[in-house]
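[step 3/7] fold_predict: job queued, chain A
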Amino acid sequence: MNIIKNNIDKVYNKELITDIMKKNMKKEIDKDLDDDDDSDETSGRQYKIPPKTFGGKAVDSLTNWVGNWNYIIFLTAFLLVWMIINTSLILSEKSWDPYPFILLNLVIAAIAAIEVPIILMSQNRQEQRDRAREEYDYAIDRKSGKEILEIRSQLNRIEKRLEK
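[step 4/7] structure written:
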């Protein structure tokens, strides 16, 4: 490999070769960025993450709050306070939700009924962002593969010139 490298340095100016390769790679990358092959599955697609709407921002912030230890601690404290107050008020017969805590069960079911669709919406938004990133990564990988093939063919041409 060093022999080839030394011969290249002797026959061609190293900087000239580097400049030519950079120009060729830049032209190819620009061409690929402008319009990709029709055979490319991702041609014509925009690799943009969907914009955040007001609803999307609200869903994401609520999901961040619900998926946090602070929320779990707060909900546990709320449930304990509810049960303690109602249990202590049973003695004075002023309890608004006696022992089986039916009202508390209704409140928890309502919270769950609201939170589940919100969490699913947030997961769908995350899936869209992940899909856009994966498509972008795939396109970059294809372009990198094309660049590697071009570099390999350029090296083969240089090697053939050196053998002559």
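[step 5/7] annotate
The two ends are 17 Å apart (CA to CA).
Helices lie at 2-11, 14-34, 54-66, 69-91, 102-163.
exit 0
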